[in-house]
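hey m, so remember when u said the tokens were messed up on ur end? i reran from scratch. heres the input so u can diff it against urs
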Amino acid sequence: MGTPVCKTRAHRGTGLIETIVALGLLAGVLLSACGLFASAARQVRAGGNVSIALATARTALEELELASFQGVLALLGCDGSLSSCEGAGTAPAIALWNVRAGKVLHDGLVEVEVDAVGAPTLLQAPALRIRLRVSWSEGPRRAALVLVAFRS
């Protein structure tokens, strides 16, 4: 007795070319899925950085809320004779916040600007507008978060 031979194409199975095409399609789908996972990982990392920056900014604002008006100006290195002041990086509070930001964010930087509200100078103002900006590097670009608070 001899081995049975299938004479019809339906009974022969898949050929080499069909298998190669199927593997190529599968590779394309898998590479697309890997790209989606890489993009999702970047977004999660960026979201984590925003959360850290927000916590850093809120901590700084809370510290400014605890100080008196003159204390705020002293913490930021401002003399109060102008209508606005950008806190100097050498000011005690800003230097500390920059150290903290640098530890948790890549190239983290804290900048503070204070404006008088309702008066010509900071010392005469019944209220202050405090603008706090935290920036950091995310690869080749800079990202930033800005919080604004009013202090009366």
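this time it looks ok to me. The chain has a mean pLDDT of 84. if urs says something different then somethings off w ur setup not the seq
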